[in-house]
What we know:
The complex is a heterodimer of chains A (320) and B (254).
Chain A: E1 2-17, E2 20-35, E3 39-43, H1 50-57, E4 65-70, E5 73-74, H2 79-85, E6 86-89, H3 101-111, H4 116-129, H5 145-157, E7 163-167, H6 175-192, E8 195-200, H7 203-209, E9 212-217, E10 220-225, H8 227-233, E11 237-243, H9 249-257, E12 262-265, E13 268-273, H10 276-289, E14 294-300, H11 304-312
Helix pairs in contact in A: 3-4, 5-6
Chain B: H1 2-20, H2 23-43, H3 55-73, H4 76-84, H5 87-92, H6 98-127, H7 133-161, H8 164-181, H9 196-203, H10 206-218, H11 225-250
Helix pairs in contact in B: 1-6, 2-3, 2-6, 3-6, 3-7, 3-10, 4-7, 6-7, 6-11, 7-10, 7-11, 10-11
Amino acid sequence: MSVITARQLARTFSTKRGRERSEVIAVAGVDLDVDEGEIVGFLGPNGAGKTTTLRMLTTLLKPTSGSAQVAGFDVATQASEVRRNIGYVSQSGSTSGDARAGEEVVDHGLLYGIPRAQAERRGRELFEQLELDGMWERAPKTLSGGQRRRLDIAMGLVHDPTLVFLDEPTTGLDPQARANLWMHISDLRQRLGSTVFLTTHYLDEADALCDRILVIDHGSIVASGTPEALKREVSGDLIELTVGSADDVAAARRVLSALGDTTIDQLVISVRTPTAGRELPGLIRALDAEGVVPEAVEVRRPTLDDVFLNLTGRSLREGA
Amino acid sequence: MRFWNETFVVWRRQMRMNLRNPAWVIIGLTQPILYLALFGPLLEPLAAQIGADNAYTFFVPGLLVQLGLFGALFAGFGLISEWRDGVIEAERVTPASRTALLLGRVLRDVVLLAVQGIVLIAIGFLFGLRGSIGGMLFGLLLVILLGAACSAGSNALALTVKSEDVMAPILNSISLPVLLLAGILLPISARSGAPDWLIIASDFIPVKYVVNAVREVFTGVFASSAVLWGSVWTVVLFAAGLYVGTRTFRKENA
């Protein structure tokens, strides 16, 4: 069953500079479907329209055109019902630095209309699951970046939503805290059966967490599929051969050309092939016959960065 | 019922945070007391000239209005830092009424103002304030309504501009002319020697009528046109402030 359905969802912002009014298209018309229990990643560079789409799906922003059903309700006409059924973890945080962590979570639950005892019980449960034991009375400003992000997640889960939106959940965290947060996010589904929709501009994050990835660029979805399927679309593995001297480049290239189009970067000759493993022994023998001794041979499986480069002609660098 | 519950949750959270860090409450209270102690003595010899029997019965109402006006006008700054922490967005993603999110904050300012006002009047007595207790309570009520209007307006402005750097000059450019033209410190009238153009300019400042009304009720006079006009303007400002505030908080992309 589909828990998110969007059709031609679009958002235009009008900005005024002096007397001139100009329209900026943030999201150009997005179609997407997310099934119950899926973890879906929304991948794209900064400014691609990820957060705008997310804000429309979570009723924080009205679409200019198009429609979306979230958790069975229409975002434009049934905002209150949508809000009741979803959890949202924004990238800008959700708690006051000077408050008390536990009180923030309980108050948040009360605003969702759940009874006080239930909010308190659920809050303490979440603190335990998210490794925030002992932080109940702490002021959020005294927590580490990773702890504070987990507190935001507890805020988003206090009312037991079946659908959780996470906006750039690990931006700004150190590698250890990121890996820890990934574990908690995949836990959401295992423990609660929640559907998770997250945005990210980290490829490794999308790769590690998501069942399915939607790639967004310039306000439109340019590809959708499992990380594996997307990577398969990039035609195969990359073989990178490094030779010892400039004299060997021509011979090495002749050998590699048998597999496909080669590219040369100084002493490195590379070629794409669907089945690198199978080609390798023959390749080495042929190089040997030509008298070329490779300095290094590297086989790289395609990454989502390759996928992105392939789809948009631009590279999506980590941390960009 | 649900609406009042949500308002209460927001209000209690705000009160808790304010009481934990009462610096601003104390500063807000210290200022009128400084005026009372350092400016009040200057008014004593002038009392007869400006048409008052008792300088403090004349001066305390002005300070009360000033407290209501400025304490509440600057309340929006707190909202900007909450917005930066993501609190506003987190509250807006819940099904809670947008009006409740505003009203809980306005009620916090109302409570703080009521306490500060009572303390100010009590200290005024030490300096020599005398008058009608009923009138003082009525005056305090007018000031609280005015403060609620300012708080709603200030929170709405904060949510619109979302930057202290934009907000501070706007508030300062409003508050100083109002402070001077409303006759909060010294009355603007022919009797106090004000030129005609200054009197006409001050007629356009609604707060002036509120100040005049509060002064009258402090002396025990209720049935006068000044009290009537002051009350009417207070209610008008209160309604306008809440209207603007609610509309801003209900706006979809605020």
